[in-house]
């Protein structure tokens, strides 16, 4: 069931979104050659503590997971698409890093993700990351009252496919509110004019995931969480929490 949010609730979610934005900014600034993924997780925990916020990621255990998630960020490097568990792995020059993070504050959740390159960037990686954000912007632009879920999915898929990238099947965005994952599902590919109608008060986490090699195939890592490209190519992920309003889409996880 889709829970429509009041304007007051959307304002409260905006405060949560600001915490997520500060967290991702701090992690991005801390990411450098030689820094470990666990150290980035500690940076994120510090931002949450300072804000008096919780983490919807920590100890989260969906049906597919063998264990509760042990961190407050997902840190996915190079061929990892999403759900990477932070470890003592240290970043190397040229690594493509995707950080997915959330926060809970005042009973409301926020969720966002960024991708970036540490050190010297390969042109192919720069293009992949830029396209992920272009797909996100296209999806946000389609998130208007009167459109449908399929319009968001089509906008994202058009950008990804047009650039020659793959889209991991079965993974995409979602509703968000009191819980991190709510109805409806928001696919990253679909037909325009199809699916649930978008209404004022819906809040969605829109999140393109791109596979650089052009295939849609992926596999879970041995940890049961991390999803990796099956062809070994690199991946990128971008996400914002977005409120659908009569005045247009409102990005709640922007700085």
How does this structure look, described?
The protein has four helices and 13 strands. Helix 1 (7-30) runs antiparallel to helix 2 and helix 3 (123-141) packs antiparallel against helix 4 (149-162). The chain is globular and about 45 Å long. The strands form four sheets. A five-stranded antiparallel sheet has the order 6-5-7-12-13. Strands 1-3-4 form a three-stranded antiparallel sheet. It has a three-stranded antiparallel sheet with strand order 2-10-9, with no helix packed on it. It has helices at residues 7-30, 37-51, 123-141, 149-162, and strands spanning 73-77, 80-82, 96-105, 108-117, 173-175, 182-186, 203-206, 209-211, 218-220, 227-229, 235-237, 240-245, 248-251. The mean pLDDT is 98. It has 255 residues and is an alpha+beta fold. It is 28% helix and 24% strand. The two termini are 30 Å apart.
